[in-house]
Design brief:
Largest sheet: 4 strands, antiparallel
Radius of gyration: 46 Å
Strand order of the largest sheet: 1-2-3-4
Order of helices and strands: HHHHEEEE
Structural class: alpha+beta
Distance between the termini: 116 Å
């Protein structure tokens, strides 16, 4: 109320008041300038508000980091799957090409049925039309090694101990099925 009165008194010309009244008006103005404003109490955040903001930020950061970690795990898993699938496709491509060439220059189909089973196949081909099958890539065996989860190509020639090449790794299973031309399962007698 004092500041409102001072505002009203300030509008009235000072010459209408006595010197005593003018001194009173000046003192009232000085007092009104000294009163603290409410703005100084309202500035900034309280400790409770800061703690609440930090807790919310922590929850959001935890959720974001969990999401990031999960996506990185999924990416790694899918990369391994993709690599295994690509390796298996390359191995099957090599195997189908060499099995398709088996029997070349021979009187039979080139599959050595007595040395083949559900996890391996041995094929032969006379690729150079020579007198024997002693050249490289003419006597090959493809083996699925369950202990190593790998498909391996074993070439019996030219090294006496053979040459082994891993075609694909991280393979969970491979089964060879031998069929006759009529579509029935092959046996050593029908092969």
């Amino acid at each position: 109320r004092v500041s409102a009165e001072v505002g009203l008194l300030a509008r009235v010309e000072r010459s209408h008041f006595s010197p005593c009244a003018q001194k009173l008006i000046d003192k009232t103005k000085m007092l009104s300038n000294r009163t603290p404003s409410k703005k100084s109490h309202d500035s900034g955040f309280s400790l409770l508000e800061l703690l609440l903001a930090m807790a919310i930020t922590l929850v959001m950061m935890t959720a974001a980091s969990t999401l990031l970690a999960t996506s990185l795990r999924i990416r790694t898993r899918e990369n391994l799957r993709s690599n295994a699938l690509s390796a298996a496709q390359r191995a099957l491509n090599i195997m189908s090409r060499e099995i398709g060439n088996s029997g070349y220059g021979l009187t039979d189909n080139g599959i050595v049925i007595l040395d083949s089973d559900a996890t391996s196949v041995r094929i032969r081909a006379n690729l150079d039309n020579g007198p024997d099958l002693g050249q490289r890539d003419e006597d090959v065996r493809f083996i699925f090694q369950a202990a190593n989860n790998a498909i391996v190509r074993f070439d019996n020639n030219p090294d006496p101990n053979g040459t082994t090449v891993v075609l694909a790794s991280n393979i969970s299973g491979l089964t060879f099925t031998y069929m006759t031309t009529a579509g029935f399962p092959a046996t050593p007698a029908t092969a």
